[in-house]
Every structure is written in C-alpha cells, then in structure tokens.
Amino acid sequence: MADDLKYLRALLTSDSAVISELYQDTLPKVKKFVIQNKGSVQDAEDIFQKALVQIAVRYKKNPFSINSSFKAFLFTACKNLWRRELNKSSHWVTNDIEEEQFYIKNEDAHVLLEQERLELFQAALDLSSDNCKSILEMFFNDVSYAEMVKDLAYSSETVARQRVFKCKKKLIELIKSSPRFNALKEL
C-alpha cells in the first residue's frame, strides 16, 4: 500500500506536510475517543504524539507492513496507548517528569516491545469467541460480576466468574501458542 509507506517514510524523515495531514485527519478521532474515555484534549494530543513516535521507532528498527490503512493503524495504536494509560491510573495527567521519562535512552526499545505485546494480545483476543470478547472486555473494564450476570443473562455470579476464568485461560493459551510470543519472550 503506497499511502502507508508514504506515512511511514514521512515519520522517519519528519515530512511536516504529510505529518500535518495525519494530524488533520486522525487527531480529531483520537480526541473524540480519549474525551469519551475520561481524558482531555491535552491527553489526546500527548497520546497521538506518543503513537507517532512509537510507530516511527518500531518501523525504523524493524520495517513492517500494515494490513489495514495507516490511519486506522495509527488510531488503533492511540486507542491501545490510552487504554494502557487508563489501566495504569484512574486518569493520566501529563507532567514534565513523565515527558522526560518518555524520552530516556532505552525508551525506544520499551515502546517497540510494548506495541508488539499489545498487537499480540489484540490478535489473540480477535481469535477468541464473541462471547469471550464481551466477557473479557467487561472484565478488563472492571465491570462487576453482578453486572455481568445482568448483561449476559448468566444464572449467578459464580457462573460469571467461571466464564471469566475460562476465557482468560483460553486467551493465555492463544497468546502462548503464537510464534510471536516466543520471539517476544526472548527479548
């Protein structure tokens, strides 16, 4: 896909015209997503910038191809980064220390590894049944077992717990059976 290479090369060469196009087309979608998920405009801009850096670092280290459009890939990377930030704390606040830590010497390798882990996790989740996807999404979003019982029409919280356990176990099996898992494990 020629457009995807255009964007990847633009990130590596700091082509401001092409990068501006990404900001115009994709940043508004990222802002909407982040704001709808407990964030601010500043959070969205920070996440967008981190995603651009992350993709550039990963591509520079190990060129890859994108199966979807570059803009969809970028948006997914932003969503994954924001979800990770939400999981780390109830709300992410940018400060100078975090920005400095992001740019430390070993951050490039960390960013690359983190993105590859997220992609492996997402690929395994995509292979899960629709029921397991729903259950795991609820579980990862801290939905109570009582709410799961109501939403999924289970007979009891025990059934919901057992189903979460089985889905997590299946997800772990899918991750560990992936050839990518062994490659990441060696890093």
TrEMBL record:
NCBIfam families: sigma70-ECF (TIGR02937). The keyword Transcription applies. Signal peptide: none annotated. One of its GO terms (biological process) is DNA-templated transcription initiation. Keywords: DNA-binding, Sigma factor, Transcription, Transcription regulation. The keyword Transmembrane helix does not apply. This is RNA polymerase subunit sigma. It holds the Pfam family Sigma70_r2. GO terms for molecular function: DNA binding; sigma factor activity. Residues 22-89 form the RNA polymerase sigma-70 region domain. InterPro entries: RNA_pol_sigma-70-like, RNA_pol_sigma-70_dom, RNA_pol_sigma70_r2, RNA_pol_sigma_r2.
